[in-house]
Amino acid sequence: MDFNFSIVFAATAVPLIIGFIWYHPKVFGTAWMKVTGMTPEQGKKSNMWVTFGLTILFSFFMATVLMSLVVHQIHVGALLTNQPDSKDANSESMAMLKRFMELYGNSYRTFKHGVFHGTLTGIFLALPIIAINALFEQRGFKYIAINAGYFIVSMALMGGLICAFL
Questions:
Q1: What would the pLDDT profile of 99-121 be if each residue is shown by its tens digit?
Q2: Which residues contact 8 (CB under 8 A, 6 or more apart)?
């Protein structure tokens, strides 16, 4: 299967772009600062190169995982290309993969479908992680809603890009 991995890198930028909007003071930034106790002065003390660098790295991790969640054909490809005869282009496994991709290679490969699975991933993976941490940190609903909402929107858009264009 041939994939356009530049789309994975493009999807990596989505959390940064959404973050600039989501955490802007006129959107949720002021509310986020209030619930976290963060001040603009504290923000200026952080090393933004490290923060943005690690954000890009972790966003790449998210995009890589989303790739396998929103593009269903990857699972069939992984199953068949790991068979003992897969090194032979004329093998039964490779013939099955080629035929499968001819028949179903574009099934469920839309932006809408990727947004659906990205949203589900945000709700069923990111939200629980954030909520569990928030419970132990004794943070409230607003903290959970702001941060989980950011990840749900980011993962939805990342999933849409990856599914439609990968």
A1: 999 999 999 999 999 999 999 99
A2: 60, 63, 64, 67, 162, 166
